[in-house]
Amino acid sequence: MQNETLQEGQKEKTAEKKDAFAKYTVKDSVFATIFRNKKYLIQLYRALHPEDTETTEDALTDITIRNVLTNGIYNDLAFRVGEKVMFLVEQQSSWTMNIIIRALMYLAQTYHDYFEERDADLYGSKKVHVPEPEIYVIFTGERASRPESISLSEEFFGGKECAIEVKVKVLYGGEGNDIISQYVAFTKVYNEQMKQYGRSREAVTETIRICKDRDVLREFLAGREKEVISIMMALFDEERIMRTHIASERREAAREAAEKMLRDGKITVDEIAEYFTDLSAKDIQEIEKELFQTI
């Protein structure tokens, strides 16, 4: 517990450094943080089902697939309303039909977990209870064509009837002041500020200020502003980390190939730079040094 407290304190200090970068997945992080709170989760449910005025926060159960220690399947948000309906909700900033395939995988995993928790006998003669699924994607990007829903059969099988079907309802926000519209508005404000200030602390603080002024997620942002800033900030941009990792992998592969060709006598040291552009002059010097040491 003490270590966790120290780590949290360190994270907050790190987030406040002036040279910090905003997380590449900032909108995902805020999305998850908002809707893990049942106060806002019930608002999401009511935006999806305005006709239901009786369901309370206590009826909602978070069943989001999370993988903390592995790189397995995970999704943005999933919750169940009693034992009747199961909701899978994703947020998407760039358009892709592959969300349908991901939704299918999330649904299969979620049902697997549901039946396992209840020790359901799927091989018995008695029919098991299956919560009705509803699948949504909240699209926050710019798109001229805005379908109300997308389906597996239409997009991947040319509309032919097939053994399995998945239908995803697409939500764009912008209608009224419900929690979905506010979240979409938040992402658009952040995109505007990011264009102006880059992935910086200033972009984050300006986003929060503007949203509070416009009554966009005002209560959430005002009550947890420090936490939101910590969530949105990180020392290194994830995109930059990925580029660095890929470049490192390519350089290592090039180095191994160059060393092999040198040992086989297929090239000379002077020809390395010509054949392996990913290697720096320092890399070539180290390869030459190692080569001479093995001769």
Structure keywords:
295 residues, alpha/beta, 6-stranded mixed sheet, 51% helix, 12% strand, disordered N terminus
Largest sheet: 6 strands, mixed
Stretches where pLDDT is under 50 for at least 5 consecutive residues are: 2-7, 10-19
> What is the straight-line distance between the termini?
55 Å
The DSSP helix count reads: 12
Structural class: alpha/beta
The percentage helix is 40-55%
Question: Mind telling me the C-alpha Rg?
Answer: 25 Å
On the 0 to 100 scale, the average pLDDT is 83
- Which band does the percent of strand residues land in? 5-15%
The strands making up the biggest β-sheet line up spatially as 2-3-4-5-7-6
Gross morphology: extended
Total domain count: 2
Q: Give the number of DSSP strands.
A: 8
Question: Can you tell me about this structure?
Answer:
This protein has 295 residues and is α/β, with parallel strands linked by helices. It has two domains: 17-235, no CATH class; 242-294, no CATH class. It has helices at 2-15, 26-35, 38-48, 98-117, 152-156, 179-197, 201-213, 218-223, 225-232, 238-263, 272-275, 281-294; strands spanning 21-22, 60-62, 77-81, 85-92, 132-139, 149-151, 167-171, 233-234. The strands form two sheets. It has a six-stranded mixed sheet, sandwiched between helices. Strand 4, helix 4 (98-117) and strand 5 form a beta-alpha-beta unit. Helix 6 (179-197) runs antiparallel to helix 7 (201-213) and helix 10 (238-263) packs parallel to helix 12. The longest helix has 26 residues, at 238-263. It is extended and about 80 Å long. The termini are far apart. Residues 2-7 and 10-19 have low confidence and may be disordered.
